[in-house]
Amino acid sequence: MRLAQEQPDNVCTDCGKSWGLEKPRYHDYRVWLDTCDVCKKLTAVCDASEYRYLKVGWDGKEVLC
Fold first, then answer.
1. Under a CB-based contact definition with an 8 Å cutoff, are residues 17 and 46 in contact?
2. Whole-angstrom distance, CA of residue 55 vs CA of residue 33
3. pLDDT computed for residue 39 by the predictor
4. Is residue 38 within 8 Å of 7, Cβ to Cβ?
5. Residue 64 lies in a domain
6. Among residues 5, 40, 33, 1, which one has the least CA distance to residue 20?
7. Beta-carbon neighbour count of residue 3 at 10 Å?
8. Average pLDDT of span 4-22
């Protein structure tokens, strides 16, 4: 899997599970209330780095290989 060149700042749990490379390893990561940059919902979010960043395609743009 390739990482997307541009990464979102805020990622919710559902989008992180769908687009992240890995689930968070620790349960003590920081979570806050904000809009998810992927699904645009107001929910609990964390930094994309907690999911080891997101795969190509998270932003809905077509990828040309």
1. no
2. 23
3. 96
4. no
5. no
6. 1
7. 14
8. 95
The total domain count for the chain is 1
3-state secondary structure the chain: CCECCCCCCEEEHHHHHHHECCCCCCCCCCCEEEECCCCCCEEEEEEHHHHCCEECCCCCCCCCC
pLDDT tens digit sequence for 25-54: 877 889 999 999 999 999 999 999 999 999
Asked if residue 65 has pLDDT above 60, the reply is no
Indicate whether 56 belongs to any domain: no
Would 1 be classed as within a structural domain?
no
Q: What is the distance between the alpha carbons of residues 37 and 58, in angstroms, rounded to a whole number? A: 10
Structural domain includes residue 19 = yes
